[in-house]
Amino acid sequence: MGSGFGGYTCARLLERWLRPDEAEIVLITPKDYTLYLPLLPQVAAGVLQPRSIVAPLHTRLRRAKLLPGVAMDVDLDRRRCEVLKISGEVTSVPFDVIVLAPGSMTRTFDIPGLKEHARGMKTLAEAVFLRDHAIAQLELAASSSDPAERAARCGFVVVGGGYSGVETAATMQLVTRAALARFPGLDPGLLRWTLLDIAPKLMPELGEQLGDAATRLLRKRGIDVRLGVTLESMTDTSAKLTDGTTLPTRTVVWTAGVTPRPVVSSLGTETVKGRLVVGPDLQVPEHDGVFGLGDAAAVPDLTTPQGGVCGQTAQHASRQAATAARNAIAALRGGPMREYRHRDLGLVVDLGGRDAVARPLGVDLSGPLAQLVTRGYHLLTAPSGRTRFRISGDWLMNMCAGDDLIRLDFLKDSPGTLDELEHMPIKVKSRHEQKAGLRQ
Ligand SMILES: Cc1cc2nc3c(=O)[nH]c(=O)nc-3n(C[C@H](O)[C@H](O)[C@H](O)COP(=O)(O)OP(=O)(O)OC[C@H]3O[C@@H](n4cnc5c(N)ncnc54)[C@H](O)[C@@H]3O)c2cc1C
After folding, report:
1. What is the pLDDT of residues 317-370, one digit of tens each?
2. Whose CA is nearest to atom 27 of ligand 1?
3. Tell me, which fold does domain 5-25+63-105+259-344 have in CATH?
4. What is the C-alpha to C-alpha distance for residues 335 and 121, in angstroms, rounded to an integer?
5. What CATH code is assigned to 114-256+346-419?
């Protein structure tokens, strides 16, 4: 289930390792592609085209049967998975072994106005919408004579100082700065980017030195980085912060954390912060042949003495997929299970232009060398030769010809907010709740 880093990799390995007469592989996913999420901010920035960061499942998978839809309910007693197809029909899929990799979605809190007005950075549509929206704000600001409207349209707020928030603020600030040159009547001083995080440091997983280096660089570029501060409430024209200030803005990008997709709770088994509890073999305790991985699962981290669970990263999800595929086959054939053990290889963060910070294998890098490592890493880990080719072509094109800074006009009929683009309208009712007669 799921065609992201975990589900797609697992399906490919199962195709390779299972004999054709041994099992039928069904991949349940609403998309017909696998998406390379770490490059989403570059799609929002217009550096990469949306198609460049996806690989089509139809050509990448040969044997697996694609079932286009979302898994809503997994019945562990009857060994069936209920799927809402993209056509709206519901079908029930029997299974002997199931691997759950539905990933995560943006976690929102009860912050007034957030779901209705904020934007996310978790899907291709959100990245494309954000770009259109940002360019439209500058065009509208330039055509307005109202100072309050101009200030709100030129004010951009990103909440969340993890890699996705930092990359979004850093790359998008460069886009809007370049776009401003097209509007001579618009005072460049009006452009204001604010990056908030409730934590005292940006990207603590990068270590103190690199986190501080990124903060200094963003501040030098004019991004107002506010730490220990978050969003208190928002409307469509302003954001009220917990430090008491109110910023005029029509754009709040919310990247402050993720939560597993709701299908996880339908199993009725133990969860930690919504993530499916699995053992070191990725199997759900007391449910043979039921595996979980990636952002949706709390996988024990066996590489650190203090324990804990693995981080929600692409690196873990794709490596866990190999363990899940091996163990799924062991469950079918009756062999021994392996434990998941992987030491993190580091993190790369693109700050736009020639700037980046990276920590490959524990070595701190910043500046153009880090950018070289960052781009090399993405090319190595992109899902297919075709995506690598397209990504390299887009980078070259962007370097030589710059950005056309046009809107594709997806905004016309849709607000493109979190509520609309990310939070699925279907509410999943768990078996547990069905028995109790409750609504989720
Ligand atoms: C902007 C951004 C930048 C990032 N940068 C990095 C980085 O630099 N390095 C890094 O290691 N990690 C990075 N990450 C995190 C990384 O992308 C995730 O940890 C990783 O994608 C998790 O893989 P996954 O397979 O669990 O989920 P995903 O890759 O999210 O895949 C989940 C799949 O399940 C499908 N799905 C959802 N619900 C259902 C359902 N009910 N039924 C069936 N299918 C379903 C989805 O459509 C999707 O195909 C970044 C994330 C973001 C958003």
Report:
1. 999 999 999 999 999 999 999 999 998 788 899 999 999 999 998 899 999 999
2. 103
3. FAD/NAD(P)-binding domain (3.50.50)
4. 41
5. 3.50.50.100
